[in-house]
Amino acid sequence: MLRRLMLSAAGAAALLTASVSAHAADVKEVQMLHWWTSGGEAAALNVVKQALSKEGYAWKDVPIAGGGGEGAMTALKAMVAAGNPPTASQILGYFAVDYAEAGKLADVSSLAQKEGWAKVIPTALQKFTTTNGKWDAVPINIHSVNWIWLNKALMDKIGGTEPKTFDEFLALLDKAKAAGVIPLALGGQPWQEATMFDSVVMSTGGPEFYKKAFIDLDESALKSDTMKKSFDNLAKLRAYTDPNYAGRNWDLATAMVIKGDALVQVMGDWAKGEFKAANKEAGKDFLCFRFPGTDGTVIYNTDMFAFFQVPADRQAAQLALAVATMSPAVQSAFNIVKGSVPARMDVPDTGFDMCGKKGIADVKAANAKGTFVGSMAQNYAQPPAIGTGAYHDVVTKFFHGEIKSSDSAVTELVKAINAAK
Amino acid sequence: MTISVAPIAVPEPPGATVRDKLQQYLPRLVLAPSFALVLIFVYGFNLWTLFLSFTNSKAFASNTLVGLTSYQKLWTWTFETDPPSSWYTALVNMGLFGGLYVVICLVLGLGLAILLDQKIRGEGILRPIYLYPLALSFIVTGTAWKLLLDPGIGLEKAVHDWGWTSFHFDWVVNPRMMIYCVAIAGIWQTSGFVMAMFLAGLRGIDGEILKAAQIDGASAYATYRRIVIPIMRPVFLSALIILTHMAIKSYDLVLSVTGKNPGGAAELPSTFMYSYTFTRNQMAVGSTSAVIMLMSIAAIMIPYLYSELKEKNR
Predict the structure, then answer these.
(1) Considering the domain boundaries, does residue B246 fall inside one?
(2) B263, A70: Cβ pair inside 8 Å?
(3) B144/B256 same-domain check
(4) Is B151 part of any domain?
């Protein structure tokens, strides 16, 4: 104890002299706000921590538990408003744009140019990491939502094959129903239903339609027959859920597939983490396919680290974090643990499982073809007022029968989007 | 609740020592910090919210005034019933949940208190059992009730396993009935507390009055109906106030019982306010709904405070 006291006293003295000298020492500490507190997520973040500690930077967590990060976003708002932002914060979609537009983010463009980030990050994603050409955030991973996850044993039992179209998907679900298993494991919460609807729209209308409707918010596309058909297709899926789906958490739905109670779940690739945690192996215990009819497209969301404007003595730590996050080795190691795919397209896929390998290849192909699009449900196509707000509302009300027909669903969607603009 | 500081008027004796003066001001000095805190963090922020409701604030607070736009939005949403707007659902649910919660808690609480007041054995054990749910947080209550009522693993499955297979109880997964499950969980949590309030009231009644009633030949029912319950009017009022404000600010309970609002059917004004302010980045609309919540609480509280104060002055 005494020793520690003396050490810290010595340290304090050293700090004092350092700050007195003309060349103020940099703070060798990264303050990071995030909500990656569950086992797998924390393990993934540890990769970044270790990379930083090799550079001599200490890591100070500002963790706020809670999957979707709602609590964290509220805490971040308070910290920034008080003029005491963290070095960096985990951030999602349009929240990064909000902070950038409010002039709260730092500029790391010179580093970005030196390292050539613009070439290796998918173009559509750079909308969130740059503002007016200036880099203010870096992506650590890419998730995509247009996946289906199947129990392989059940698939073998009913003799199912990979469905390539929406109709084949329905046929497969019918087979499962006939065999007496729950065909579709669904958590009936607004965000889960809306996330599934992203894939349904892509499958029904294709990438051009998706972009026109959700990225451009073209009213004729939103009201079109294709959109009506998408709602009808969504309604068809409802018949394959078990009766108790309303309000279920997504991980419980994944557990139904893992245990073999249900055949398939439509969910983003974070579901793979649940399979991994249950010691299941891709290709052997479970299968991953793109949502039928969406192969070749990637509906993405991403986790980013946004850099805030901090005093000069903390900027070195900020840049060190940026370098560590964007290093191919960290991106690879992080995403193998997290279950997502690297945000850099030049990271080799060695070490990833078959789902990861497919994900990496798909991102590259989709970026080249221009079919790499943001998820509406996850607020990567539109700001939260429209995504979490209007879109979730209309989809969940339709799915639970409050909105009775696809005709009125499209009318309501346009109305809700206009009210939220 | 408000803190009222009664004016302390002590005539200053001539030649008072410093000590006397200090003693005279001590109550004010002690109360001043909490008074200042309440002034800023309750009333100050009330005003701030009121101000925000007239601005065009979205993700962050903005100072640009746009008048009654947000109020107009809420007003039109109030009458959108097909499909129901979130705000309409929130208001209807508030009425259903609040009404059931307050009335049933009062009835159950009074009933339990009367039964416990019969000088029974083991009251010392029974009373804490009824009171105990209040020690749990609403999140715990909500999650436990969600699991209990879940048809796949809870009540319905248990009854099926006992052999009554036609039994059907799926309220907690049926968006239209969910709000009743929230009420069940809330009532379970709070009725014991209301019982304790009534029990204290019952114990405070002068035994002589009851004896007099007995001598006059009043039945037990008539004694309660005509004497005991009227005497407990202040307890009713306090319980009513506490229950009403608990119902209006109820937030964690509804989220944990319903599981993130499927079908948008489990909205309450409090969840509406939170989601518009913090997740949908429409802070102005969120603030407006908060102002309306405050006004509805005030509409209940002010007549109550007024009548209480009037009685004291009489």
Answers:
(1) yes
(2) no
(3) yes
(4) yes
Question: Which residues in chain A are contacts of B60 at CB distance < 8 A?
Answer: 77, 81, 98, 102
DSSP readout, B122-155? THHHHHHHHHGGGGS-HHHHHHHHHHHH-TTTSH
Q: Based on the fold, state whether residues B91 and B195 are members of the same structural domain.
A: yes
- pLDDT, tens digit (0-9, with 9 covering 90-100), for B264-292: 888 999 999 988 888 888 889 999 999 99
| B60 to A384: CB separation less than 8 angstroms, yes or no | no
CB within 8 Å of B310: residues ≥ 6 apart: none
Residue B73 contacts A, CB cutoff 8 Å: yes
In the block, which residue shows the tokens 């200036």? A134
User: What are the b/e assignments for A76-112, b being 16+ CB within 10 Å?
Assistant: bbebbeeeebbbbbbbbbbbbbbbbeeebbbebeebb
Q: How many CB atoms lie within 10 A of CB A284?
A: 11
DSSP state of B13: P
Q: Residues B167, B281: one domain?
A: yes
Query: Which 3-state string (H, E, C) describes B51-67?
Result: HHCCECCCCCCCCCECC
**Per-residue pLDDT for A67 more than 80?**
no
Looking at the structure, tell me whether residues B142 and B220 fall in a common domain.
yes
Q: What share of chain A is helix, strand, coil (3-state, %, to 5)?
A: 55, 15, 30
Neighbours of A19 (CB within 10 A): 11
Instruction: Check whether residue B101 and residue B15 sit in a common domain.
Output: no
Task: Tell me whether 0.85 is exceeded by the ipTM.
Answer: no
